[in-house]
C-alpha cells in the first residue's frame, strides 16, 4: 500500500512539473534548464514561480487548484510518504544500487543454444501422434500436464515444428487458450492461424464454429491448444464438436497445469503426459547452457551455481532466466554470492528467480519492462512498436545520457530479450511475446498502474483493451474520471490486420478524451473517425499520437500547440489531403509517418523540426521549389525518406542547399517525379546522397542519364544493397551497376528507351553483380538484346530470383545463373530461346552444376519460344502456359507440381516424371495425349485438372483409370466429350476423391445414370449450358458425404435431381444463373434431407424460381441466406427459418410482403442487406431490433429511416446510398449514447 501511494505521489509530481513547464514556456526547448534549476535550487524556484505565475489562472489539472495550491498539496503528500517510510523502517537496498545505476551494455551476447533436455518427452509425444492403433484413432487428444514454467509450451512447440516430417497432417493450428476461456476467440484464432488471413466472419460464435468445422471437414489435422485452464465439459464440447469433423488420424495436443482438464479432454486413458521437473543433473546441464560455461571452471562459482540451481526446483524457465542473469555478472564471485543470498528467494507469489532477475535490471530497463504489463498475455509486439511506446510515455528521458532515446530504448529491448524477458513469437515472424510467467511478473511490479476495466481504480495511469471487442466496457462512468491517465491504447487481436473497421460513437468518444488531459500516449488506429475532438488539442503533455488507418480528413489547428508531441502516425489516412500550416511549431517532433496518405503538398517551415528522424513521405507541391532548402536543417533524418513531386523543383540550387550529402544516417531514399521536366538531370545531380545509403529507388525520372554520384568513374555507393529504377522512360543507358559489390536487389521497370544490356552494364569487376540475389526486369518495351560480359568473367553467381516480364522485343535471354531457384518469364512476345552461356552451355563438363533444384519455374505467354534448356530438370514446380511454338521440355523427374497449358507442339513431359513424386497436375491437351500419358500410374498425385481445348476436333472418352490417391479432380472441356458410365464407375470405386468439378462441358447434355463416390465432399457443375437434367442416381452415392454443391450458369437445367433430398450432410448450396429452375425439391418428412445441416444457401439469377422448398422453415442450422435477382420468387410467412443470422435480398420485387410481414419475426438476425425495392416507401416496424449491420440501397421512394434507428439498439454499422435517408438531428438524441455506430454513404 505504501509503495503504491508513493508511486502515485511521484507521478503526480511529474505531472505537475510537466504541466508547469509546458504552460509556462510553450516549448520544451528550455525544459532542461528549468528542470535543472528546480533540482538545484528548489526554494528559489518556488519563489520565482509564485512571483511570476500566481495570476496566470488555473492549471489544466481537472481539480482546478492554483499552481501554488497544487504544488503545496504535492509537497505535503511527498513529505507524508517520506515520514511513513521512516515509521515503517524502510531503508534503501544498498546492495542493488550499483545495478540500478548501471548502464546496459550496447554489445549484448547473442542467443545461447539451449540444452535439449526434453528429447525423450518429444519422441514419446510424436509416437502417440503417429500411432494409428487404438479406438481413439478418429480423434486423439494428448494432454501435456505440468506446473507453470516447466516447459509444456516448449515441448509442444518442438513436437509441432517436427510434425512437418509427418506428412499425414493436411492442416495445422496453434492457439493460446488462457485462463479466461473464450470459445469465440479460440475458434477465430485457429481459423486465422490455418488460413494465414483474417476470418471473414466477425465475432459471431455460431458462424465461426461452422467455419472451423467446414475447414476441418474431412481433413487430417494437428492442433495445439496451449495453456488450457477450463475443466468445464461444456467448454470442451464446444471445441470437440468442431474437431470431430476432421478425418481419421486427426490429433489435438493440450497443454495444461490442471489434471482435471487433462481428464476432461483426453480421449483414452494413459495418453496424458505429465512433464516432470528436470533432474539435478539435467538442471545443471541446462544451467550451464545458459550461464557462462567457462565460469564453471571456478570451483567457487560452480558451488554457488549449484546452490542457485537447486533453488530453481527443476523448472527450466526459472533456470534459464537465472542463468542469463549470472552470465551477465561474469566471474565476479561477490555478485554471484549476492544473488544467492538475496531475500527474494523467500517470495512465493512469483517464482523467486524471475523476481530476482527483475531486481537486477538497470532502473531504466525496469520501468520499460513494467510498462509491458499494459499488454494482454501472449500479445505479440514488434521492436519498433515497443520502442515508440516507451519513448512516447517518456520512460527514456532520465536515462538517455545524451543519446537518442530511440537508441537507448533499442538497447533496453535487446537487454530484455537477451535476459529472456522477451521471446520470439512462435509464428516465425519478426514479433515478440512474453512468457505467461514473465507477464505475471510485469503485472506484479506494475500493480495499480494498468487499469482493470472491471474494477476501476481512478489512480491508474494506463488503459488498454482489445479493439472491436471491449469498447462496451468503457461505458463504466468511472472510466471518465481517469484524470491521471497517461496511456490510452486499444490493442489488436493477434493475427489481425487493421482495415479501418472499428466504430466509436462520437459523443462517448468526445467525453472520454475530454477528461484525459494528462495523456502522453493516445492511439486511435483503425477507428472509423473522420475528425478529432477539440479536446485532443488540450492534451498539452501528449507525446505519441497514432491516427493511422482512420478516416481523418484534416487535423485540427490546435494540434500544432502540442509542443511535447514527438511521434505522429498518419499512415494510410487516405482522406488526408493537407497537414496544418503551423505543424512546423512542433519542434520536438521526432517521427512523422505520412505514408499511404494523399497529401497534395507539405506546409512551409518543416526545416524548423530539427529533431525529426522519420519523415516517411515528403510531397513537394507546385511552386514550392524553395521548400527543398528546409532539408538543410534536418540532419537527424534516418531510416527511409520518400520525396515525391520532384518535378516541381525549378532551381536545382534549392536541392544543393538541402545538403543530402550530409545526411549520413539516412539508409533508404525514394525519389519520385510525377511528370518530366527540363530540370530532371540537374535535380538528380544536385541530390548527391551520402555514401552510407543502403537503398535507392528512382521513379518517373525524365533524364537521359543517371548522375555520376550514383555510379561514376569511382563508385561511391559501395554499401548500396538495393536499387530500383521505375518509369524512367528516357533513360537510354545504364551505368556499370555490376561494380556495386553489395547490391542484392535490382529492379528495372518501364525504361522504354533502353535497348540493351551490354558490357557497360557489368562494368570492369572480375565478378559482376557478385552479391545480387533478386533481379526483376519489367515493361522494357525497347529492350532487344541482353549480352553477358566476355573474358570468362563469372556473373550473377548468387542470383536466386529472376523475373523478366513484358519485354516484347527481347529475342534471347542468356542463361548462366548457377544459384537460381525461382524463374519467371512472362509476356515476352518475341523470345525464341534461353541461350546457355559459359559453364551452362550444353556439352560443358560443368553442366551438372546448373541442374540444381529449382523451387519454381514459370514461363507464360511467350508464343515464339521454341525450347527450354535441360537445366530446369530438377524443378519442384514447373508451369508453362501459352507457348504455342514450344517443341521441347526438359525431363522433369523431380517435379511435384506441373502446369502445362496451350503448348500444343510439345509431347506431354509426364512420361519422365517419377510416379511417387508428382502431387499436382494441370494440363490442357487432347484426349489422345491424355490416354498416352498413363496418368493413373502417379501414386502421389492428389490434385488434377484436365482441360480439353476447344480446337480439339476429336471425339473421345476420358481415361477409365485414375491415379489411386487422387482427391481433387477437375475437368474443363469444349469438345464432344463423353462422360460415360465407365468413368463414373471408376470414380465410384475411388475412395480418396473428395472434390470433383465439371466446367465448360459444352457438349454434355446429361450425365450417365451412375453414382458418384461415397467419399465426395464438394461437387461443382459450372458453365455446362446443354445440361437439361441430372440423373437421380448421380447424387445418391454421396448422400452421406457431400458438404458443398455448386451449380453455376446451367441455363437449360430445368430441375434438380430428386436425390438432392438425400444429401443429409450438405452444408453449402450455391445455385447461380440457372434460368429454367422453377422450384427446389421439397422436404416433407422428418428424416434426413438436404436442409437438415445446411448453413449457407445462395440463389442468384434464377429468374424462373417461384418459391422456396416446402419445409424450408425447418432448416434451423441455416445462418446465411443470399437471394439475388429472382424477380418471380415469393416467400410465405412460414417460409424462412427464424434462426437466420445473415440475410441478403437484392432485386426480388415480389418479396415486398416478406419484408413487411416476415422480416420482423427473424429475431436472430444480425446482418441485413436490402437492395432494389422501388415500391417500398417505409421500413417502419419491418426490422428486428437484433440487427447489428444494416445496408439499404436502391429504395428510390423510401423517405427516411431515421425513425426506426432508435429501436435498433444493437446497430453498429449502417450503409445507405442516399444521404437523405438519415437525418441525424431527428434521431441522434434518442440513441443510446453508448452505441458504436458508423454511417457510410455508398
> How many alpha or pi helices?
30
Taking the sheet with the most strands, its summary is: 32 strands, parallel
CATH superfamily of the domain at 118-274: P-loop containing nucleotide triphosphate hydrolases
Q: Please report which band the strand proportion falls in: under 5%, 5-15%, 15-25%, 25-35%, 35-45% or over 45%.
A: 15-25%
Using the coordinates shown, work out and report the CATH topology of the domain at 118-274.
Answer: Rossmann fold
Report the principal-axis shape.
globular
Quaternary state of this entry equals: single chain
The chain-level mean pLDDT equals 81
| Helix fraction bin | 10-25%
Low-confidence region ranges: 27-64, 93-115, 495-500, 839-850, 951-955, 1228-1238
CA(first)-CA(last) distance: 56 Å
CATH C-level category of the domain at 118-274 = Alpha Beta
- CATH architectural label of the domain at 118-274: 3-Layer(aba) Sandwich
Total E-strand runs: 45
Radius of gyration: 35 Å
Quickly give the structural class. alpha/beta
Word description of this protein:
The chain is built from 30 helices and 45 strands. It has 1242 residues and is α/β, with parallel strands linked by helices. Among the domains are: 78 residues, no CATH class; 157 residues, 3-Layer(aba) Sandwich (Rossmann fold); 70 residues; 119 residues. Helix 18 crosses helix 19. About 8% of the residues have low confidence. It comes from Kalanchoe fedtschenkoi. Keywords: Leucine-rich repeat, Plant defense, Repeat. This is NB-ARC domain-containing protein.
Amino acid at each position: 500500500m505504501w509503495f503504491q501511494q508513493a508511486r502515485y505521489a511521484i507521478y503526480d509530481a511529474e505531472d505537475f512539473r510537466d504541466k508547469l513547464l509546458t504552460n509556462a514556456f510553450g516549448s520544451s526547448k528550455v525544459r532542461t534548464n528549468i528542470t535543472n534549476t528546480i533540482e538545484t535550487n528548489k526554494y528559489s524556484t518556488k519563489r520565482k514561480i509564485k512571483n511570476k505565475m500566481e495570476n496566470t489562472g488555473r492549471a489544466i489539472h481537472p481539480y482546478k487548484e492554483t499552481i501554488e495550491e497544487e504544488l503545496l498539496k504535492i509537497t505535503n503528500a511527498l513529505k507524508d510518504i517520506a515520514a511513513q517510510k521512516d515509521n515503517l523502517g524502510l531503508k534503501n537496498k544498498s546492495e542493488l544500487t550499483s545495478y540500478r545505476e548501471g548502464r546496459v551494455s550496447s554489445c549484448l551476447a547473442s542467443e545461447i543454444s539451449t540444452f535439449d533436455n526434453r528429447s525423450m518427452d518429444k519422441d514419446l509425444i510424436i509416437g502417440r501422434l503417429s500411432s494409428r492403433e487404438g479406438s481413439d484413432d478418429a480423434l486423439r487428444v494428448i494432454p501435456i500436464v505440468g506446473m507453470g514454467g516447466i516447459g509444456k509450451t516448449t515441448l509442444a512447440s518442438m513436437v509441432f515444428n517436427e510434425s512437418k516430417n509427418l506428412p499425414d497432417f493436411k492442416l495445422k493450428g496453434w492457439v493460446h487458450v488462457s485462463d479466461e476461456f473464450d470459445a469465440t476467440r479460440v475458434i477465430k484464432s485457429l481459423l486465422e492461424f490455418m488460413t494465414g488471413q483474417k476470418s471473414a466472419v466477425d465475432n459471431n460464435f455460431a458462424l465461426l464454429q461452422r467455419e472451423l468445422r467446414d475447414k476441418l471437414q474431412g481433413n487430417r489435422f494437428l492442433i495445439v491448444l496451449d495453456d488450457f485452464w477450463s475443466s468445464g465439459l461444456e467448454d470442451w464440447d464446444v471445441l470437440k464438436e468442431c474437431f470431430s469433423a476432421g478425418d481419421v488420424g486427426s490429433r489435438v495436443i493440450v497443454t495444461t497445469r490442471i489434471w482435471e482438464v487433462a481428464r476432461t479432454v483426453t480421449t483414452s486413458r494413459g495418453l496424458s503426459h505429465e512433464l516432470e521437473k528436470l533432474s539435478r543433473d539435467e538442471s545443471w546441464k541446462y544451467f550451464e547452457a545458459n550461464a557462462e560455461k567457462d565460469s564453471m571452471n571456478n570451483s567457487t562459482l560452480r558451488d554457488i551455481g549449484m546452490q542457485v540451481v537447486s533453488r530453481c526446483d527443476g523448472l527450466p524457465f526459472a533456470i534459464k532466466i537465472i542463468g542469463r542473469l549470472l552470465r551477465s555478472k561474469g566471474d565476479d564471485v561477490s555478485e554471484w554470492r549476492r544473488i544467492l543470498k538475496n531475500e527474494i528467494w523467500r517470495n512465493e507469489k512469483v517464482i523467486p528467480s524471475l523476481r530476482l532477475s527483475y531486481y537486477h535490471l538497470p532502473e531504466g530497463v525496469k520501468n520499460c519492462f513494467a510498462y509491458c504489463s499494459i499488454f494482454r498475455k501472449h500479445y505479440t509486439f514488434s521492436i519498433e512498436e515497443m520502442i515508440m511506446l516507451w519513448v512516447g510515455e517518456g520512460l527514456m528521458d532520465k536515462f538517455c545520457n545524451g543519446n537518442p532515446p530511440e537508441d537507448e530504448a533499442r538497447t533496453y529491448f535487446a537487454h530484455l530479450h537477451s535476459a529472456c524477458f522477451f521471446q520470439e513469437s512462435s509464428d516465425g515472424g519478426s514479433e515478440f511475446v512474453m512468457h505467461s510467467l514473465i507477464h505475471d511478473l510485469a503485472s506484479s511490479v506494475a500493480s495499480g498502474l494498468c487499469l482493470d476495466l472491471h474494477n476501476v481504480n481512478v489512480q491508474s495511469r494506463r488503459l488498454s483493451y482489445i479493439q472491436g471487442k471491449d469498447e462496451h466496457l468503457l461505458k463504466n462512468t468511472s472510466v471518465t474520471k481517469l484524470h491521471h491517465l497517461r496511456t490510452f491504447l486499444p490493442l489488436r487481436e493477434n493475427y489481425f490486420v487493421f482495415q479501418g473497421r472499428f466504430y466509436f460513437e462520437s459523443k462517448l468518444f468526445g467525453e472520454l478524451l475530454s477528461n484525459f488531459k494528462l495523456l502522453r500516449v493516445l492511439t486511435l488506429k483503425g477507428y472509423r473517425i473522420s475528425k478529432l475532438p477539440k479536446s485532443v488539442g488540450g492534451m498539452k503533455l501528449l507525446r505519441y499520437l497514432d491516427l493511422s488507418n482512420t478516416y481523418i480528413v484534416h487535423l485540427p489547428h490546435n494540434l500544432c500547440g502540442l509542443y511535447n508531441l514527438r511521434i505522429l502516425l498518419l499512415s494510410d489516412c487516405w482522406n488526408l489531403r493537407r497537414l496544418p500550416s503551423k505543424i512546423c511549431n512542433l519542434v520536438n517532433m521526432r517521427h512523422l509517418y505520412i505514408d499511404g496518405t494523399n497529401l497534395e503538398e507539405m506546409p512551409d517551415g518543416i526545416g524548423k523540426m530539427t529533431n525529426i528522424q522519420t519523415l516517411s513521405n515528403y510531397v513537394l507541391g507546385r511552386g514550392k521549389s524553395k521548400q527543398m532548402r528546409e532539408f538543410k536543417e534536418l540532419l537527424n533524418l534516418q531510416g527511409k525518406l520518400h520525396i515525391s513531386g520532384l518535378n516541381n523543383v525549378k532551381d536545382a540550387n534549392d536541392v544543393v542547399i538541402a545538403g543530402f550529402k550530409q545526411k549520413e544516417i539516412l539508409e533508404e531514399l525514394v525519389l519520385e517525379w510525377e511528370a518530366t521536366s527540363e530540370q530532371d538531370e540537374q535535380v538528380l545531380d544536385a541530390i548527391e546522397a551520402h555514401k552510407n545509403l543502403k537503398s535507392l529507388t528512382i521513379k518517373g525520372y525524365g533524364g537521359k542519364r543517371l548522375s555520376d554520384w550514383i555510379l561514376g568513374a569511382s563508385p561511391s555507393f559501395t554499401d548500396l544493397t538495393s536499387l530500383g529504377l521505375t518509369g524512367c522512360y528516357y533513360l537510354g543507358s545504364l551505368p556499370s551497376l555490376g561494380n556495386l559489390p553489395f547490391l542484392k536487389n535490382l529492379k528495372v521497370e518501364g525504361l522504354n528507351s533502353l535497348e540493351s544490356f551490354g558490357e557497360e552494364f557489368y562494368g570492369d569487376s572480375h565478378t559482376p553483380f557478385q552479391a545480387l540475389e533478386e533481379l526483376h526486369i519489367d515493361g522494357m518495351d525497347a529492350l532487344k538484346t541482353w549480352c553477358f560480359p566476355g573474358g570468362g568473367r563469372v556473373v550473377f553467381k548468387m542470383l536466386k530470383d529472376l523475373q523478366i516480364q513484358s519485354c516484347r522485343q527481347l529475342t534471347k535471354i542468356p542463361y548462366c545463373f548457377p544459384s537460381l531457384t525461382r524463374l519467371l518469364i512472362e509476356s515476352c512476345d518475341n523470345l525464341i530461346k534461353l541461350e546457355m552461356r559459359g559453364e551452362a552451355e550444353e556439352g560443358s563438363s560443368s553442366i551438372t552444376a546448373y541442374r540444381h533444384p529449382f523451387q519454381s519455374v514459370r514461363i507464360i505467354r511467350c508464343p515464339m519460344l521454341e525450347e527450354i534448356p535441360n537445366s530446369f530438370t530438377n524443378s519442384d514446380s514447373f508451369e508453362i502456359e501459352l507457348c504455342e511454338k514450344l517443341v521441347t521440355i526438359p525431363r522433369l523427374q523431380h517435379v511435384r507440381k506441373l502446369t502445362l497449358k496451350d503448348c500444343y507442339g510439345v509431347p506431354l513431359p509426364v512420361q519422365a516424371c517419377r510416379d511417387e513424386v508428382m502431387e499436382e497436375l494441370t494440363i490442357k491437351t487432347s484426349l489422345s495425349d491424355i490416354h498416352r500419358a498413363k496418368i493413373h500410374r502417379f501414386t502421389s498425385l492428389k490434385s488434377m485438372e484436365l482441360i480439353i481445348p476447344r480446337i480439339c476436333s476429336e471425339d473421345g472418352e476420358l481415361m477409365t483409370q485414375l491415379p489411386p490417391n487422387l482427391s481433387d479432380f477437375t475437368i474443363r472441356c469444349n469438345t464432344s466429350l463423353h462422360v460415360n458410365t465407365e468413368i463414373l464407375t471408376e470414380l465410384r470405386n475411388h475412395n480418396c476423391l473428395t472434390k470433383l468439378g465439371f466446367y465448360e462441358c459444352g457438349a454434355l447434355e446429361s450425365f450417365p445414370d451412375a453414382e458418384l463416390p461415397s467419399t465426395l465432399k464438394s461437387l461443382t457443375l459450372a458453365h455446362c449450358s446443354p445440361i437439361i437434367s441430372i440423373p437421380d442416381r448421380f447424387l445418391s452415392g454421396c448422400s452421406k458425404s457431400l458438404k458443398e454443391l455448386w451449380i453455376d450458369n446451367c441455363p437449360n437445367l430445368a430441375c434438380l435431381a430428386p436425390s438432392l433430398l438425400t444429401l443429409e450432410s450438405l452444408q453449402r448450396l450455391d445455385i447461380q444463373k440457372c434460368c429454367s429452375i422453377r422450384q427446389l425439391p421439397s422436404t416433407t418428412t422428418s428424416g434426413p434431407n438436404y436442409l437438415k445441416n445446411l448453413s449457407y444457401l445462395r440463389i442468384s439469377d434464377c429468374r424462373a424460381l417461384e418459391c422456396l422448398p416446402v419445409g424450408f422453415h425447418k432448416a434451423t442450422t441455416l445462418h446465411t441466406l443470399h437471394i439475388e435477382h429472382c424477380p418471380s420468387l415469393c416467400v410465405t410467412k412460414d417460409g424462412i427459418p427464424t434462426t437466420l443470422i445473415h440475410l441478403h435480398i437484392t432485386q426480388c420485387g415480389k418479396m415486398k410482403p416478406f419484408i413487411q410481414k416476415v422480416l420482423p419475426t427473424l429475431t436472430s438476425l444480425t446482418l441485413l442487406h436490402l437492395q432494389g425495392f422501388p415500391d417500398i416507401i417505409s421500413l417502419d416496424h419491418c426490422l428486428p431490433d437484433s440487427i447489428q449491420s444494416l445496408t439499404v440501397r436502391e429504395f428510390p421512394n423510401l423517405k427516411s429511416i431515421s425513425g426506426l434507428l432508435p429501436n435498433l439498439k444493437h446497430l453498429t454499422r449502417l450503409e445507405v446510398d442516399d444521404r437523405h435517408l438519415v437525418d441525424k438531428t431527428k434521431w441522434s438524441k434518442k440513441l443510446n449514447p453508448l452505441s458504436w455506430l458508423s454511417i457510410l454513404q455508398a
